[in-house]
Design a protein that fits this description.
The protein has about 375 residues and is an alpha+beta fold. Helix content is about 30%, strand content about 25%. It is globular and about 65 Å long.
Length: about 375
């Protein structure tokens, strides 16, 4: 059942996914209200911003989803920039994946989409790359976006300009339901006040916290620590996607370094000596000269992970509640296609190929329901 006229679609979560979906719905004229506990904890403010379905070595339906999003991103970014008046920092800079041997390179899942590099080719693309890397793949079609400093701000402004309402500092405690359908949500305000908000349609995009509202969702947090260095401008042209560590150069010389993958950390906040040492070792292995660059920031976040590391998209078991969560390490890449698919699903305008893509990421694929 559609929402009554004038009743907004609630977006549960004010991170990248929530803002991207809110923006698409508002562009189509829907009333939208975003409920956010603390936007600064969202993965969109934490991630490095790689657009890397090929460099990540994705396969199957997840690769298909990533490729569809990569194709959609230029048009999506153009919409956001037009609506906000702000640049999003999109850079189709290409990504290099280094390997210890040609055999390892040739066995990589996405090798057919890349350009094979020998040691000389690696040195041409990444001057100063560590000596242990003997082969590589260049994915010219992959790139990056400055999500942390630019994209999130542009989306916020674009949403506000289209009339999206924001409630910041509110925590959604409970989904209210009747006869299998969403009726609203129970909130706690920043002042600690409990209140109910009626809604017939909502999108759950609370990232790693999504299963706290819907426990049947198989989502758990995977903590990641990151840091940034200030390098010389244009010192690194390509993103380097190494095993366990990646280096993402921004236009102004800032180098974003990530990320640990701490599956047992739960929601334990803070930096750890082991995590920071792991990042420093990765820098030294991939680009030794960067070990001498001055550090700028250190931070952490929580990836929302599912058993197959693919997202949960589309209808939930609760009528009126839509899912856009569980994107693991590919949230920035998949934001464009997620917003497009959820907007189409809510409006009931999805055609064959897109409907099939959405169905491939139904929450019940793990045998837990639906």
């Amino acid at each position: 059942m559609a929402a009554p006229p004038g009743q907004p679609v609630l977006i549960l979560g004010g991170g990248l996914m929530g803002l991207a979906i809110a923006h698409q719905l508002a562009r189509r004229g829907r009333a939208v209200e975003v409920l956010s506990r603390r936007r600064s904890e969202a993965a969109g403010f934490v991630a490095a911003g790689m657009l890397a379905p090929h460099a990540e070595g994705l396969s199957g339906a997840l690769l298909q989803l990533g490729q569809a999003s990569l194709e959609a991103i230029p048009g999506w970014v153009a919409q956001i920039e037009a609506d906000s008046g702000l640049a999003c920092g999109l850079r189709p800079c290409g990504i290099v994946v280094p390997f210890a041997s040609a055999a390892e390179r040739d066995a990589y899942p996405t090798t057919p989409w890349g350009e094979a590099l020998d040691r000389d080719g690696l040195e041409r693309e990444v001057p100063g790359i560590g000596p242990q890397w003997r082969a590589g793949l260049l994915f010219r079609q992959d790139g990056q976006i400055d999500n942390r400093r630019r994209l999130m701000r542009a989306l916020e402004r674009a949403c506000a300009g289209l009339g999206v309402r924001f409630q910041e500092g509110v925590e959604v405690l409970e989904l209210q339901r009747q006869d299998g359908a969403l009726q609203g949500v129970r909130l706690r305000s920043a002042e600690g006040e409990l209140r109910d908000l009626q809604a017939r349609e909502a999108v759950l995009c609370c990232g790693a916290w999504s299963s706290q509202l819907l426990p049947e969702l198989p989502i758990h947090p995977v903590k990641g620590q990151m840091l940034s260095l200030q390098g010389p401008r244009d010192a690194l042209r390509r993103v380097i996607f190494g095993p366990g560590t990646y280096l993402v150069p921004r236009e102004d010389g800032l180098l974003v370094v990530g990320a640990t993958s701490e599956r047992e950390a739960g929601f334990r906040e803070g930096l750890t000596p082991d995590g920071q040492r792991q990042l420093q070792a990765g820098i030294a292995a991939l680009l030794p000269e960067a070990s001498q660059w001055p550090p700028m920031e250190r931070w952490w976040g929580f990836r929302p992970c599912t058993p197959d590391e693919g997202p949960l998209l589309g209808a939930s078991a609760l009528q009126g509640l839509w899912l856009a969560c569980g994107h693991h390490r590919n949230g920035v890449l998949l934001a464009a296609i997620t917003a497009q698919l959820l907007d189409g699903a809510i409006a009931q305008t999805l055609q064959g190929p897109q409907r099939s893509l959405l169905e491939a990421f139904h929450w019940g694929r793990f045998g837990s329901g639906g």
